[in-house]
Amino acid sequence: DHGTDFKQRWRVLRERVLAMKRIWTEDEAAFEGEFVRFEPLWSWPKPVQRPHPPVLLGGHGRRALQRVVDYCDGWLPISVRAGDLEAGMAELSWLAREKGRDPRSISVSVYGAPMDAPGLVRLRDIGVERAIFALPSAEADTLLPLLDRAAGIARQLA
Asked: Which of 55, 18, 56 is nearest to 35 (CA)?
């Protein structure tokens, strides 16, 4: 919890994200919020990604999706069960349009993606931009074949 009151955690997170974006995008950044305050400062080097590194938020439900629309660049859905992902993506698009934001400006990344070409093609076809494989905490003799398999699938779909 990093010393953050549970009831204020989302407001604190929002301010911290906005403050980081300011530091990343302005030569001289200052911020005055309820939880984050700093006088003009200089921070170099700036991130390579423009305008800043993508800020992704995980979660499910309308409130999480609204936060993604309000101050994030991408969504990491909690559930990728059949139907849940598509419904969440549809709601995310609707919320973005309601706020005047282009839904295409919000990426969707799936953690725990299926390690098979048909499953990845399905994710790509519904608009998922990143598929992240879940790997076990294991020794190299277990992990290396899984990584080889993932690399083969990536080559197949490239």
From this structure: 18
